Amino acid sequence: MNMKGSWWRRVAMIALSAGLLAGSLSMGTGIRKADAAAGNQNYAEALQKAIYFYEAQRSGPLPASNRVEWRGNSGMQDGADVGVDLTGGWYDAGDHVKFGFPMAASATMLAWSVVEYSDGYEQAGQLEEIKDNIRWATDYFMKAHTKPNELWGQVGAGNTDHAWWGPAEVMQMNRPSFKIDASCPGSDLAAETAAALAASSIVFADDDPAYSARLLQHAKELYNFADTYRGEYTDCITDAAAFYNSWTGYEDELAWGGAWLYLATNDSAYLSKAIAATDRWSSSGGSANWPYTWTQGWDSKHYGAQILLARITSSLNMPEATRFIQSTERNLDYWTVGVNGTRVKYTPGGLAWLDQWGSLRYAANASFISFVYSDWVSDPVKKSRYQDFAVSQMNYILGDNPRQSSYVVGYGQNAPQHPHHRTAHSSWLNNEDIPANHRHILYGAMVGGPDASDGYTDDIGDYVSNEVATDYNAGFTGALAKMNLLFGQNHQPLANFPAPEVKGDEFFVEAAIKSSGANYTEIRAQLNNRSAWPARMGDQLSFKYFLDLSEVYAAGRTVSDVQVTTSYTEGATVSQPVVVNTAQHIYAITANFGNTKIYPGGEGNYRKEVQFRITGPQGAWNASNDHSFQTLTTGTPVKSIYLPVYDAGVKVYGQEPGVTPGTVPGAPAGVQAVAGGSQVNLTWAAVSGAESYTVKRSEVSGGPYTTVATGVNGLTYTNTGLTNGTTYYYVVTAVNSAGESSGSVQVSATPQAASTVPGALTLSGTAGNAQSVLTWTAASGASSYKVQRSMAGGTYADVATGLSVLTYTDTTALNGTTYNYRIAAVNANGQTLSNVLALTPSAPPVTTGTLEVQYRSGGSGNSSNAVTPQFTVKNTGTQAIDLSTVKIRYYFTKDGADQMTFWCDYAEMGTANVEGTFVAVNPAKGTADTYLEISFKSGAGSLAAGAETGVIQARFSKNNWSNFDQSNDYSYDASKTAFAAWNKVTGYQGNTKVWGLEP
């Protein structure tokens, strides 16, 4: 874009006056000289992705050009509560509120960046993309400006919105609309929106003059509204006060908006209003007391306004120029060399750290205005000081930091993978911890950032350090455009960006056999909507259960002898069998959930259940040949591809009869990359069903990837022959005869010269009782060793560091849990990993003490509303035992959160002498999350040597009388219909276990 407007020419005329006014005594900055090679960045790619973030934030009906495959239409009723179309705009951050104040501030910053650095965008091939995203916001602002003195400034209530964790496309909460008007004004909001529209009118002046004129007209009306009716917007839109309170008032926005309107119109009245507003920035002392220890942001516009006014007033030789220049330099010096001995805090790694909440946004915003001012000031010392500062901060954000990690999602090395963002995470369960990993990559989003010691944890729940927001990315994006101009002359954005995501199953049925008999089969089925590409409402979903009635027809009966009844439904209508293939006697039963909302919005919403019984003729019924009966078992419902799902009649999941299914393995988890000399060592967790693994590599984050190894049979691979100092990006796939999985989460590593990296080492070990004993061979050149452990395909964590010996006993291991161990040999140049060793600690064989517990099932069956275990206790010792010291424990799964009640139905010692209590097993262990502890009162007496207590008939139920599923209970055994010693019920004397195996 060629900026030919009159305002641009005026700014270009100020070089001479700037040299006279801006000159001052040169001072050292203490900031390292800008280094074009810092971090080996691709600034065009970073800019491309930073812009893309705004597309992921879009609300309303999305255009055909939408590039974010996991985003769909959302907020389609916004404004309906007040009869106004308020669809569109941006969601603020990781939530779904449309806060107008920070949205407008973000749009103004983006427009300013195009005014300043359109060449930087154009050089990266991103000029049309940034203009398209600015237009998305300005279209919304004009829509929200419904009358000259009326502006809708917020859609959605903050606390209500934040109470739900799910994707924007299926949010169901009420989204109230809030406005300012002449009766309850908001000068800050109106003037900021005017600034956004005025700045954007300059952006579109050459390409679309008609659109530019519309923007400018709205900007003029809004500024007049702001100036005529004074007030802070959070006094009227009170819901915003807890999130985006107007702390600095509205005088800064009146100056900011006036400056932009002057630049867009060349009308000196706006310049006069802007300067007059700055006179009210301080109650005393004039410009010397203007704020300087903060920076440009969604609330404070002083810092941007004074830069614009410094340039404008200098170009017009106005006396006010001096105070704007001095105030600007006081602020920028506070961020660089300090003012009167006071400077912004710096982390050990070099980040200018203003505040914990979104520390990087402040550094990015300060970088952008430093770039803008350094481009204008003529003093070479100041020009270098402010530019070097901005370059250093931007490179810190992109990876030149002590963690050697990018703070931009989907860009660079060790980028964040768990930003605090609902739709990118895409939970179906209204839970930020489920799933464990984000289903989508929120490319280009800059997270909040590290603490004052450069510390950072990539935690989805940390909205202070890991939130993303439109205002976070605004100054960052503009500064990237300048970085691309400075250092990105040969950089290119990624081709075919973004790469298509590998989609998981979005709709499916989990099913189980509830019960069965000689002439019937009863099915429990749960229809799931875990959609995410994009998330969408399912109100026309159905599934089919396919029957093979060959045995019915072979017995001379027909489909009319088969009946379907429904015993429980959460909105489904279940059909009778309908013929699919007459010759083969294939029929289908349809469970239709039409008009029932099933959506990924939490428990009770993402899945709906139906239970139906299929009854056939006696002696002519066999469900085992049914297509949909395959893989079904009793107990907990599991996903089945043989119950296909349909959306509005179109199959979206599963296999119909006659289609041979293939089960492709899942993507490997726990992938880690460790660099060595000219090599990278990769490790990963085993994938069920995988026959081999494939390793793929790219020198560009996000691919495309080249295959470097196929048919890998182990869980480790070393990629050799690499170039030291080059960052390599890897994904691993799992392969079997059915196909290849999607790629794992990308990992990266940068090989370095390896002349003194530790040599190879071999790990061996044994599992013991609640411990793992590890030994390993010495690695040449190692100064110490680390023991690392992972569980269930997770990432490795250090359990011991700084070891100088060649053995270690892990006493934190739990019996029955499989751990993967490896040893890292460490020295100053890096580390070398050993082989991976899997160990499963277990308790030693139990030897009975003086008690033996015998058990039989009370016959309540796998599914029942009462559990009825029966016991007898035998004294196998030579001394009498006081029964009041004896306890026995029966382990089971509670199957819900309801309270339970215990009864003793019979005991030879008297039921009044038998007590039962319920205790939670924490953490739950496999098939036990609770145990029933039976104890005896003193009236039970003692148990002589060799004697037995006689039968103790126990019974317990939930207080709501819902069923237990005993099939997965640790202590339950339906086959034990006569008393027998049973070591899955434990016995205790005092606090000492003398019988059985705990789970």
Question: Could you characterize the architecture of this molecule?
Answer:
The protein is globular, with a radius of gyration of 35 Å. With 999 residues, it is of the alpha+beta class. It contains 18 helices and 47 strands. The strands form 12 sheets. Strands 8, 10, 11, 12, 15 and 16 form a 6-stranded antiparallel sheet that branches. Mean pLDDT is 91; it is low at 1-39.
Poorly predicted runs of 5 or more residues: 1-39
The main β sheet shows up as: 6 strands, antiparallel
User: Helix/strand/pairing class, anyone?
Assistant: alpha+beta
| Helical segment count | 18
Output mean pLDDT: 91
Instruction: Choose one word for the global shape.
Output: globular
Strand content: 25-35%
Report the C-alpha radius of gyration, rounded: 35 Å
The helicity comes to 10-25%
N- to C-terminal distance: 70 Å
Number of strands: 47
Q: What brief labels describe this structure?
A:
six-stranded antiparallel beta sheet, alpha+beta, 999 residues, 25% strand
Write the topology of this structure.
Elements: H1 6-12, H2 15-22, H3 43-56, E1 98-99, H4 100-123, H5 127-144, E2 150-155, H6 158-162, E3 177-181, H7 187-203, H8 209-228, H9 241-244, H10 251-265, H11 268-278, H12 302-315, H13 321-335, E4 345-346, E5 352-353, H14 359-376, H15 380-398, H16 422-425, H17 470-487, E6 507-517, E7 520-529, E8 541-548, H18 550-554, E9 563-569, E10 573-574, E11 578-581, E12 586-592, E13 607-615, E14 638-640, E15 645-647, E16 650-653, E17 672-676, E18 679-683, E19 692-698, E20 706-712, E21 716-719, E22 728-736, E23 739-740, E24 747-749, E25 763-768, E26 771-776, E27 784-791, E28 797-803, E29 807-810, E30 819-827, E31 830-833, E32 837-839, E33 851-857, E34 863-864, E35 866-867, E36 869-875, E37 881-882, E38 886-892, E39 900-907, E40 914-925, E41 928-936, E42 942-943, E43 952-958, E44 964-965, E45 980-981, E46 985-989, E47 992-995
Antiparallel strand pairs: 1-2, 2-3, 4-5, 6-7, 6-14, 7-13, 8-12, 8-15, 9-13, 10-12, 11-12, 15-16, 17-18, 18-21, 19-20, 19-22, 22-23, 22-24, 25-26, 26-29, 27-28, 27-30, 30-31, 30-32, 33-36, 33-45, 34-44, 35-43, 36-43, 37-42, 38-41, 38-46, 39-43, 40-41, 46-47
Helix pairs in contact: 1-12, 3-17, 4-5, 4-7, 4-17, 5-7, 7-8, 7-10, 8-10, 10-11, 10-12, 12-13, 12-14, 14-15, 14-17
